[in-house]
Amino acid sequence: MNGELPKILVLIGGAQRSGTTLLQTLLAAALGSPNLPEAHILSDILASYKRARAFGNKTKYFYPTDDDLLSFFRSFAERHVADVNAGKPPALVLKDPNFSQTLDEAAAIFPRATRIVSVRDPRDIAASFMRIGERESTKGKPERYAKRDIFFVSRKIRASYESLLDDADAQHAVLVRYEDLVRDPEGTLRKVGHDTGLEFSLDRIERAEWLEKGARHQDSWVTELEGTKPSPASVGSYASALRKDEIAIVQEYCEPVMRKFGYQLIDAPRPGRRGRVLGFFGVKARPGKH
């Protein structure tokens, strides 16, 4: 294919179920970008680059310097994005939740790209996974989420945001809160435009076209909110979707995430192995940056 790099490249990451699909759909409309499936190929390239950097003692036998290694990965990352951009749209908006774990690698390979991370209350993310499990159960093909493994889900959520926890500048990525986006899409994107310097045509978001279901998720992952206009209907839904002990577990594992992004913890008892209460995780979070 004979494409070239786009003038505007936006990379969206975040935890699964944090609103990355909605954010991509709206940004693609506002920037005139094609709406594409998850960019798993580019995500794998960035993950491979991260792994090669982590194992520098081995990597140096193949690429002696950091610049050599970067040049190698940049060559086929750029080739892939250029191929995707063959139609030369005004901008290219790509998303994969795992981009949030390779922010440094993305910045090194695409220094002019805009990197955005979708954040959402970890309890609501966990609730969304539990609903996936319920839908899996009704279809007779229960998979991992049907087992209601709240520990697995909590660790998964924290891992998605781990790279942002210790960096005061959040790896220079722009953060978009799901709760803000669904309550005020236009106002939230206007702020994103201010923070990134991107120029949006916000009138287009009213006509944003969702990607067909088959290119997005398995059926059990599709909710009634997808394919419609942004709605705050699921904000705070964890209160009815999760048990109190499950809320406590999510808060325990994801407390650093909640504190970083300004989500308040609530009192929630967690039963011990013998049914006794281990304690309450009701410490108030410090206000975060919105």
What report would you give on this structure?
This protein is of the alpha/beta class. It has a single domain (9-280), classed as P-loop containing nucleotide triphosphate hydrolases (Rossmann fold, 3-Layer(aba) Sandwich). Helix content is 45%, strand content 9%. It is built from eleven helices and six strands. The strands form two sheets. A four-stranded parallel sheet has the order 2-1-3-4, sandwiched between helices. A two-stranded antiparallel ribbon has the order 5-6. Strand 5 and strand 6 form a beta hairpin. Helix 2 packs antiparallel against helix 4 (66-84), helix 6 (122-138) runs antiparallel to helix 7 and helix 7 runs parallel beside helix 11 (244-261). The radius of gyration is 20 Å and the shape is globular. The N and C termini lie far apart (41 Å).
- How many strand segments? 6
SS-based class? alpha/beta
Query: SSE string, helix = H, strand = E?
Result: EHHHHEHEHHEHHHHEE
User: So how many helices?
Assistant: 11
Radius of gyration: 20 Å
Query: Globular, elongated, flat, extended or rod-shaped: what is the shape?
Result: globular
CATH architecture: 3-Layer(aba) Sandwich
What is the strand and helix layout of this fold?
Layout: E1 9-14, H1 20-31, H2 40-54, H3 56-59, H4 66-84, E2 92-95, H5 103-109, E3 114-119, H6 122-138, H7 150-165, E4 174-177, H8 178-183, H9 185-196, H10 238-241, H11 244-261, E5 269-271, E6 277-280
Parallel strand pairs: 1-2, 1-3, 3-4
Antiparallel strand pairs: 5-6
Helix pairs in contact: 2-4, 6-7, 7-11
Which labels suit this protein?
290 residues, 45% helix, 11 helices, alpha/beta, four-stranded parallel beta sheet, disordered C terminus
